[in-house]
Amino acid sequence: ETGVTQTPRHLVMGMTNKKSLKCEQHLGHNAMYWYKQSAKKPLELMFVYNFKEQTENNSVPSRFSPECPNSSHLFLHLHTLQPEDSALYLCASSLGQGVMVRERRDTQYFGPGTRLTVL
Amino acid sequence: EDKVVQSPLSLVVHEGDTVTLNCSYEVTNFRSLLWYKQEKKAPTFLFMLTSSGIEKKSGRLSSILDKKELFSILNITATQTGDSAVYLCAVGRYGGSQGNLIFGKGTKLSVKP
Q: Which residue of B32, B88, B104 is in closest CB contact with A106?
């Protein structure tokens, strides 16, 4: 069971394609995240949104473009990717900065991920 | 540089065994430590620890934090094949931006029948 859904679950694309990943959370959270998970590496935070505002961009290349139209939806637009961008892309959500007990904001709930392969 | 180190990186046990997974950290302004279980795709939340010496328990899983020695352990007793997964440790910090958890590489646990 998960309160965070992601589509598609698998995606194969060429380097010249444009595609988008979608994430939706049903937990009433106000913060959403994109992570990249590559083999034998720790989870890498890419972007953070709080109440629809981007608060973190972890030096991510511009070929990745996030969009957060509301607190429940998050997109990751992909264009002219490289083969080394092949990875599992995970979306997560949590309580946002409006929560006074800061530790409560740390618990993030993850979606099932999109397995991306760039040819 | 802040870091989270998990050990061992992989572990193979038999059903019924008890295992201990380790997570040590060097993080400025520590706020919380979290454990996740990742089976196929989505990491699922297990525990969040903020205080030293207070054990958190859920069924056969338990975890404790030592803020003086900067580590946490995750214990699994009477392991079952369904416990096979990658276990992730992450640390949250004060002063970092919202949601900036630092993850370890994970421990891959394989439980053989």
A: B32
